[in-house]
Amino acid sequence: MEQFDIAIIGAGSGNMIINRKFADKKVAIIEADKFGGTCLNVGCIPTKMFVGSADAAQHVLGAERFNLSAQLNGVDWRGIVSRIFGRIDGNVAAAEQFRRDNDNVTVFKSHAHFVSDHVLELIDAGDEANSPAAVAEQRISADQIVIAAGGHAHIPDHLSQLPAVMDGSVVLHTSDDIMRIEQLPQRMVIIGSGFISAEFAHVFSSLGVEVTVVARADALLRRHDVAVSQQFTQCAVEQWDVRLNTTVIDIVATSDGARVVLSDGSAVECDSILVAAGRNPNTPGLGLHNTSIEIDEGGRVIVDEYQRTSAQGVWALGDISSHWQLKHVANHEARVVQHNLLNPQNLKAARHDAIPSGVFTSPQIATVGLTSAQAQELGLDVVESTVDYKEVAYGWALADPVGFCKVIVERSSGLIVGAHIVGAQATTLLQPIVQAMSFAVPAADLARGQYWIHPALTEVVENALLRVRL
Amino acid sequence: MEQFDIAIIGAGSGNMIINRKFADKKVAIIEADKFGGTCLNVGCIPTKMFVGSADAAQHVLGAERFNLSAQLNGVDWRGIVSRIFGRIDGNVAAAEQFRRDNDNVTVFKSHAHFVSDHVLELIDAGDEANSPAAVAEQRISADQIVIAAGGHAHIPDHLSQLPAVMDGSVVLHTSDDIMRIEQLPQRMVIIGSGFISAEFAHVFSSLGVEVTVVARADALLRRHDVAVSQQFTQCAVEQWDVRLNTTVIDIVATSDGARVVLSDGSAVECDSILVAAGRNPNTPGLGLHNTSIEIDEGGRVIVDEYQRTSAQGVWALGDISSHWQLKHVANHEARVVQHNLLNPQNLKAARHDAIPSGVFTSPQIATVGLTSAQAQELGLDVVESTVDYKEVAYGWALADPVGFCKVIVERSSGLIVGAHIVGAQATTLLQPIVQAMSFAVPAADLARGQYWIHPALTEVVENALLRVRL
């Protein structure tokens, strides 16, 4: 049995750990799928590139409010797909080749299955598709193991077990494959109300697909601040066919696609179905029952502030252990694990405060910290302030009727505890607030302690801060 | 002679000073032109709104790189003008009415002419155009006088004294009137190479006008960092007919416009000429020779850090006294004067560090602090770092080939001394750097002391900071 100093399961964020400082370590990197993980292959990066084309289409379609007459004549879907994945696949291949060229690293294109805390059974992934009988197996051991195996798109049982799905007459797409479909559908049903649903509804509708969004809840993006959820739901209703308080009770194959039968008695004909029901950690199949590694009720590997699991010498990071499911959080955790592997006597804790996130839909959304409801649950005494894009000059320039910046400030300290932005550039506009939260700069100092370009869009943030009355 | 506690000359930024805290003061506000000053009427705000339409047109014209086929069918220039000035003129009228409704404020629509340090002759501006002979005059005095009379577009003598200009057969437009022309010209010559030229070249060319830019210098935006100037000049050459190292030696009227004769022997036919040769302070005509108020060689009123002129009880702010000619600087100075008028025993100094500025052209530009050349002149030991938009995921999504973020960091302190961004959202992206400079956060802490959303465009800033090797 081959012995390694470090074994890393998953070549997404996990692949960031190994650098020159590990040159004297014998390292195994085990990846059953593609290098780059969810983010690069089926997540953040390709979706944002599709959003790039969607935003561009929206710019054409929205030209009239700028007193321009424009028309969108065509969408070259195959061109979009090939531009995006041409770039991404090249990066993925380069990342794998880079590792294969490292003298001290062995790359296993395998599934990893724990036999004990420090022994892994590797099940060859490369042969699965063609000759499952030929699956090769081997065991390795490692002093330190990093679990960075990520997550996967979740398809709820009530959908996966429908007869038409079971017999293959209806295909349920997820974010894993929807970006590589051969051609644009005419009509798509998206099941789900979270950020993945919001982003794909924007992408496909902007590119000309009739989109129906089916949401169990009474609003979209319900985990966001209520002001965001309300504004976004309103915008969604104006853009797409949105069915709130509704579930899918059946899907049947039709001659040219499928009929999705809903709990309100209606049905939607479509030729493509996307399930956007969240993502689950990739712990099943890892064999964690053979170890002392503990998981929580959601199936996530439990880690402490140093990213240590309950098994000595086993670490975890990213979507397999994090509630956040955000690449920038996984990257941070990877840096923490990197440091801690190199400095076992001087461990560094991961920092999980002031974590921003974005939803690249239409309109764009960015959020950090607490929602109003969370602040209330925590019993904080807070002051809220909201300024609309249409109240600042650059919002006039953008002719933006819906955008806003909301800040939530703790009265006693004057510190920002949450902020929520809807509208153009939201994910860029949020950064000064993230920075202030991270460096403990009070809202008033943030507003008046620096210049803000007039009349840049940043004035919507400046004015929201100025309007806070403690 | 009517006596006031405070007289404010100019209702641009000067109009911000008076609030409820001045309720017991008798105030005169003297404005010969429109309330709102340069920024609202002929500067930042309308130009950005025109840029809004220009950017929208560029989005249509650039759709192909997103694998979309789109076309721009028409530009409703009158619609643009009327949308923009409909909004602005309403705000201007409301601002004046608000002041007229203040019990303690008298509004004089007049030119102000100093007779002595504290006595002003008011020359009625309202009647000038129609019956100059009927000009009314009166004198007022005030204990405190604030000079906030702004600046005006400069037309160099070698242009204004050309025969065709003198006899009126050729009109030289400036930023004062070019936004209200009746219809879009076919061909426009823009004389100048600074930010006003850059913004209007973008506006008019995007809306379909053939634009020629005539620049005396060997590059556009030469006051910017050399990396910005070079990149922008390259982009300009690809978009417009740019004549560098060239001056206008004559302009002659033609049957359908004008012929602009250049120093290189060539000539450009056009039907509209815009002079964008900078702005000069409005000190001529103020009668400052009758006072102890000093001006510098550029005609600017000289002020100290408290915005005091050399005459006791006379203050100045904004473009009439500032090298910056930026609205956000004028606003800050107005707040300083406001404070100092109310707190004569506890004066506050204006802060003129880390002042950002933007050029809303194509591509957008934002800058703060020192250029490389300035850092070198000061003998600073600095490290520079540049990351291109195309190196980060959101740059891929934007399909942006030219954008970049450059940071200049002092080696000994690790503090950022300058930053320069070219590309989409530049003026928004710059803010975290402005903030770090204002709060003395070193580059390394700025990069790693907070989360940056992946994959938002902010990563271009994050990565530029991370690439700094001190």
UniProtKB/TrEMBL annotation, chains A, B:
The record lists the lineage as:
Bacteria, Bacillati, Actinomycetota, Actinomycetes, Mycobacteriales
Co-factor note (free text): Binds 1 FAD per subunit.
User: Which cysteines bridge via disulfide bonds?
Assistant: C39-C44
Q: Which family does it belong to?
A: Belongs to the class-I pyridine nucleotide-disulfide oxidoreductase family.
What species is this protein from?
Hoyosella rhizosphaerae
Q: Where does FAD bind?
A: K48, D319
* GO MF, any single term: dihydrolipoyl dehydrogenase (NADH) activity
Which protein are we looking at?
Mycothione reductase
Q: Which residues form the Pyridine nucleotide-disulphide oxidoreductase dimerisation domain?
A: 355-464
Where in the numbering of this chain does the FAD/NAD(P)-binding domain appear? Answer: 4-334
Biological process per Gene Ontology, one example term: 2-oxoglutarate metabolic process
Q: Which UniProt keywords apply?
A: Disulfide bond, FAD, Flavoprotein, NAD, Nucleotide-binding, Oxidoreductase, Redox-active center
